[in-house]
Design goal:
about 300 residues, Cobalt-precorrin-4 Transmethylase, domain 1, Methyltransferase, Cobalt-precorrin-4 Transmethylase, Domain 2
């Protein structure tokens, strides 16, 4: 037994030494001015990467969704950095300040409360404006609740669609679920504790007996992934006192369920055009629905004509 402990201590010592060497190497690398999108742990602090630590330690400014929350993370690793809030309520005012810091030669890091920035978090417009200004934008990848849930749910992973948070109101939520119904992919949603049971009930009504999963407390001590049909999961979570946020996954439709109508394509196209150019929106919608790009293009042109002719 003592020999095993000795071997474990030796292995631990070698591992620690190599991690220190790797971190030292990252710290010595130049950190050019630019915007750095740094993924942070979603629960287990050990999930942070050595590269993420090196970038955060050397950044001239860290823009965080909640500075109080992020300061705890930085303090845990002994990182002393200038923090500034960047969230949906102050983004329009703060973007010019952040871009000015990059222009002045600083490395600016963007972090969210947990996981990968821009995934259901503010930051998209900041990235766009940084790119348009000619600044370097670098992703420092790491934890993501959506991918952690997808890879452990047992649902198809070859094609998936991240749909973020559903609308809070029932009618709008069901409409959005109907729009996504024909998508031939595993669907990934984020949901709050207060709306989880209602969302699962709506999914049961709209998606029927498809395979589904609900992941909670990912990477934490009480991590769990519940699997079943949406109806089964709705019953399981209806009588449970819930806290926090959840990842809900629904498997793709059966082949006879996957016939895509024009209305679903147009609805998705309208959403895509809010964030993408016409060309990019056509391409992404065609890929999502696995339909010909020419069909989506024609529907997009018809949509533009309708909007143009509207009084």
């Amino acid at each position: 037994m003592q020999d095993h402990r000795h071997d474990d201590q030796d292995a631990s010592g070698r591992l620690l030494q190599r991690a220190q060497t790797a971190l030292a190497g990252e710290m010595e690398r130049p950190l050019p001015a630019g915007l750095y999108l740094v993924a942070t742990p979603i629960g287990n602090l050990a999930d942070i990467s050595l590269r993420a630590l090196a970038v955060l330690a050397r950044a001239g400014l860290i823009a965080a969704e909640d500075t109080r929350h992020s300061r705890k993370l930085l303090s845990h690793f002994g990182i002393k950095a200038e923090l500034t809030p960047y969230h949906e309520h102050n983004a329009a005012k703060e973007r010019p300040r952040l871009l000015a810091r990059i222009r002045a030669g600083f490395a600016v890091a963007l972090i969210s409360d947990a996981g990968t920035p821009l995934i259901s978090d503010p930051g998209y417009k900041l990235v766009r404006e940084a790119l348009e200004a000619g600044f370097q934008v670098t992703s420092v990848p790491g934890p993501s609740a959506a991918l952690a849930a997808l890879t452990s749910a047992g649902l198809p992973t070859d094609t998936f669609l991240f749909a973020g948070f559903l609308p809070p109101k029932g009618g709008q939520r069901r409409k959005r679920l109907e729009e996504l119904k024909p998508v031939p992919a595993t669907l990934i949603f984020y949901e709050t504790a207060s709306r989880l049971a209602a969302t699962l009930a709506d999914m049961a009504e709209i998606y029927g007996a498809r395979e589904a999963a609900v992941a909670k407390e990912l990477t934490k001590l009480h991590e769990s992934v519940a699997r079943g049909t949406p109806a089964e999961l709705a019953m399981a979570f209806d009588s449970t006192e819930l806290k926090g946020e959840f990842v809900v996954l629904v498997g793709p439709p059966a082949p006879d369920e996957a016939e895509v109508g024009d209305e679903a394509i147009v609805a998705r196209l309208k959403q895509a055009l809010k964030q993408e150019s016409f060309r990019d929106a056509v391409r992404s919608v065609a890929e999502d629905f696995k339909v010909k790009r020419s069909r989506v293009y024609d529907l997009g042109l018809a949509l533009e004509r309708k909007d143009r002719d509207a009084p």
